[in-house]
Batch of 4 targets.
Target 1
Amino acid sequence: MSCPDPVFEAPWHAQLFALTVHLHAQGTFDWPAWTEAFGATLAEHRLSGDLNGGDDYFTAWLATLERLLDANNMAPPAAVEATRDAWKQAYLSTPHGDPVRLS
Amino acid sequence: MPHDTHDHPHALLPPDPALRVRALETILTEKGLIDPAALDEIIDTYEHKIGPQNGAKVVAKMWTDPAFREAMLTDPMPLLDEMGFYGRQGEHMVIVENTPQVHNVVVCTLCSCYPWPLLGIPPGWYKSDAYRARVVREPRAVLAEFGVTVPADKKVRVWDSTAEIRYLVVPERPAGTEGMTVAELEKLVSRNSMIGTALATEPTT
């Protein structure tokens, strides 16, 4: 216990985890529905090789959340792609050290 | 971690999944469906307030307080609630006790269900396919890889978590700890010992 592992390996793991927990708390989905959907994604992703429980685990988590948010029309894929591209552009056009914001 | 030099002309581009998570947050925030401040609070809670130290408190108290132990084994929820360890993904806890006859170990074969209020966020290996698939098939071999050798005459029981039911293993109290305080005992209870992939730490003399 003297040298505990970091709780989240990457900041986006933490963001994704928090987003999911928050959506669940708001009643967007119940937890059994989440685990069932997540289990199915993990099984799919496993077809291309064993998952190590790190990045690949949260990649499957993200795919599950995107699917659920698409299914209930909260975040359609086209909007996600467009907003993702906008964030990418924002990062590429913001001088290093400045806070990155969507224009 | 991204390197931290200052010769980048622009802000360091996060990996694609990070941008996608950002995009979801943006869309849901703009629609008024989520509160970004709530997300920060959740992260802070899981990074700083919830972790195996909670489970260790339960275990050490069970070692030292027979009435509490009895209650935890039969109906743990009221007392966990009282201790402040009730919460999401810990609504239906089952406490399983290691004995000289039985060693318990916990897995989630479906995804990675885990008793968050008592142990925090699961470690990478708990979420790996290697652990999730193998501990059911050959628990003794997996435990041996963790450095836990279970004698042949001791049973190994594997508990598969579900979306509803989560398990906490109570490791056996090590010998030579009779005079220790509850606070000292808590330090002997590691995260892995409460999953079942370790024993309680022997006290240093």
Target 2
Amino acid sequence: MTSMMDILVVLLLFLIKSFVADEQMNPAAGVTLPESTSQERPEDSVVVAITDSSILVGEDWVMDLTALDDSEEMLLIPLADHLRDVRSVREDIARLQGEDPNLGRVTIQGDREIEFAVLQRVMYTIGAEGFEEVSLAVIRTT
Amino acid sequence: MARRRLRRFREIVESDLEILPLMNLFVVLIPMLLLSAVFLELSVIHMAAPGGDEQAEVEKESFDLAVHISETSWEIRARNIETRVISRTEAGMVEADGSDGMTSAIDFATAVGRLHAALIEIAVDHPENKAVRIVSQPDTIYEDIIEVMDASRAAGLPEASLQAAGQS
């Protein structure tokens, strides 16, 4: 019994040390973020995740990256439609709560192996939908 | 009399600690903390959304510092300075030659260090400039872009913007 208590105490101390009270952003499933020395904390925003095979908004699948091969178009229409819907929902919630939901901010969680051509189209679409600020999510290194 | 006291003392000392309530508390606390624990610390790099014509206008009039990323090199270009080409092939070439990964990692770190040093030199010569354009090929890997952004920020050029090669 005493040895189990010892294990639990050590575990508890470790977990208390890594406990963060703020709301944290977690990487989307299937995304391996690049590492960076940036120390800026993520803020509340719409999250667009780019895995090696698809694009997601929040946890919702939006489109496959294979669809990009067939088109030269910079604007990604499924993503633009989805961003418009998310923006509308956030505006409604903010109106009801009387808060500023930071409507103009998007955080891109891009897999470290994606090509610039994909990132460029996603950023172009975000800009075309009227979002003013874009943040690139990274894993913080010291 | 003395023997009876000793026996009572032993009865008191030998009783077990009541740790079951503490165990119950731990069993509740540990799952709660596990759920809220952060094992990967995320941070962000802020940028302006693309599409602003004003930004392009400012760049045309100013120093217009740009780092062009290609498969084999970084090219630092700006108005009124000589173009500098920094090789980044050591990493890939060493691995292609069959040498060990440790050597390639050191070579790559050295290459990034050279880029960093060159950007610091330019930043010191032009302290009014805080912006840098990172010009990438369509197949440039996202991680390589972040690497250049880190080197620029560390050199005192925090305002990075992305651009595709061939765009004016």
Target 3
Amino acid sequence: MEISTQEFKHCEMIKVKGRVDSATAPQLAQALEKANEDGKYKLVMDMSELEYMSSAGFRALLAAQRNAKKYNRGEVVLVGVPDRIREALELAGFTELFKTFDDPLHAVGHF
Amino acid sequence: MQTVQFQAKFDFLDEIREFVGNIARENGFDDQAVYHIQLAADEAASNVIEHAYGGGADGMLEISCGVKANTLTIILVDHGKSFDPSEVPLPDIQADLGDRKIGGLGIFLMRKLMDEFEYVSGARGNTLTMTKRKA
């Protein structure tokens, strides 16, 4: 798994590549927490190059969304979610908790 | 049926997914089914590592996988703490953000992704059996 971040005027984009499972999810959680520590709560998760995500990754996303939405200070949105991962998120009932976009520009423009 | 043993560590999840994924693919399961089988095996193994062995690295985890009559079977055996899957509360997947519970999601997904899910705890350890039929 690889994580990179890109700053925009009104939000931060966090791109996660590769596979997120119980071994790698703590790193993802850490990157999301780090953004929050830096006062960034408006986050775009770019999942377009993500190959795999287990429920360990879903939990990291859920924690980040809770933290972001607290006091209405922000939101986590998802962009480029691959079909298989979208399907698993749907099974888990997670798709209602996150706005999703196909195009990164639209996701960034949401903020 | 092929069988492999792994140390109960999250680092081996990649290999566990590859093991079941290869068998599924070789036997003609499509990409979507392969993903489901890999995710179910990952969730099962993650639960064993996290809960049966409490994250300690000493435990072993044995996985068998094979296909017979268009049905893939995964059998996972561990010698850690057992649990009663019927007592794991179902996650409320309709709940609002603030009320979402974190636990139980793995078992919920395994049941959704696979056709059968059975857990037996006895003298020879804990045995989880899951099957999936080819579409």
Target 4
Amino acid sequence: MAHTADADFKTRLQNLLPKLVLSPSLAMVLVFVYGFIIFSVYLSFTDSRLLPSFGWVGWENYSKLWRLSHWEISLRNMGVFAALYISICTVLGLGLAIFLDQKIRAEGMIRTIYLYPMALSFIVTGTAWKWFLDPGIGLENVLQTWGWESFRFDWIKNRDYAIYTVVLAAVWQTSGFVMAMFLAGLRGIDNEILKAAQMDGASNWNLYRRIIIPQLRPAFLSAFVILSHLAIKTFDLVIALTGGGPGRATELPATFMYSYTFSRNQMGIGAASATIMLMTIAAIMIPYLYAELREKK
Amino acid sequence: MMSVSTQDTAIRTGRVTRALIYLVLLLFGLFYLLPLYVMVVNSVKPLDEITGGGMMNLPRVFTLEPWAKAWSSAQIGVDPTGLQPYFWNSIKMVVPAVAISTVLGALNGYVLTKWRFRGDTILFGLMLFACFIPFQIVLIPMARMLGLMGLAGTTWGLVLVHVVYGIGFTTLYFRNYYAVFPTELIRAAQIDGAGFFQIFWRILLPSSGPIAVVSIIWQFTNIWNDFLFGASFAGADSQPMTVALNNLVQSSTGVKEYNVHFAGAILAALPTLLVYIVAGRYFVRGLMAGSVKG
């Protein structure tokens, strides 16, 4: 059987086609993601200020960065924010999912109400909470006009407490989503095991503690990975809710990077802070993605 | 209302416990609805009712004035244009960005599941990790690149940015969905002489509805709600809605018109909220269809 040159070309094209189709996306990702990462990491070792510049300064930007109180405050705020945000969302999400899994009437409507904040922009969330928490017109003022004159709630204007208002708004936005993840996990658990354990006289508390919650491990892991990466990327919410203030009370690494790069003309330091953010996320995401992708093989 | 049948649970609860569970669920329902209530109620009352301590009250005087002002005459930056032009900027950015990233995601998912080659999982891993990077790491080079390409400050520049950082997710969705699609059907079509695009067009695409909905909803929500890229790369006539809303609320000149701010916030939230209410159930259903591991 002799192949004509034409048919040969066609088969080769057919064999090449899948890779050709994939290549534009791949090229974009390689340039715009990995190329850019290399460029930014490189900039973090240069004397860039208003514009990128290529004078090598070694680790100077990093040592400057770690001496800045502004950066230290951003990191400390991130620690408080991430710890509270992740743990409250997880506990609340799991609790609400367990409650919603008890043959609740109107479950669909309740789920819709719990989940809708996820569809909103952080700027919208920030605006709504900003004015609701504002002592001048919001909750404090309302309760005072209702007759509780000694009522005080000025956290959003208070240096020591403002970070907790960011936690509150962020939990409001994402806890419903975490609830949905746990609910999906609960619905996947085999009822036969539970019935068998019940026969043996296990209480509801023990069923959850010994059998159900341990089986939710994958949901816990996904929730942790998603929440921690959202926490590190938190930017818009702070901009809309507090603008980083009062003072620097709610500055986070993302807002730090933005102001050092674009308004303070310290691009080298900005790039160094972005590199640290990337490394933190990579330390969480890469092992997770590696395990997920291997599993499927 | 989403109506997915409640699954049977083996757990049995007493009357008192059930009452408590309903109470807790109700209280959290109120918590999630509270900001929406505050926004809606205060967007239809005159300013003095808010400043006078009536934020939680229903409006005594009902007015649509704040909505009209937020839409067409509020001061955004230097011009009293209202949010209207920015709303259209967002639409002009979102529609092409969603369409392009979804089409690319579908093609990538098809290649990565049905035309596998050595190293494809690694390539997919690289695309997937790109979804989770803190975008701060690409802001500086991206600003330069857009300048070099002549796209700085334009809507098409923003479309490009959103396509680049969105294809990881769209590829993920289509890849998971196509992974459970029977490969025998593809092989049979190949034996019958169907080519790469014919198979995609005739066999995979007709059954891709559910996952296309997931991809479109996801991308629409993310791109509409984006603030970082809009604030970093948009020019005067390409600023999206989120950036304009932030400018409206943060503006430090004149009286703070809270009612206008709330009306503006609802205007910015409306498109994604509508998509969620109308198509949310298809989103969950499509995700479930794709999440069955192959």
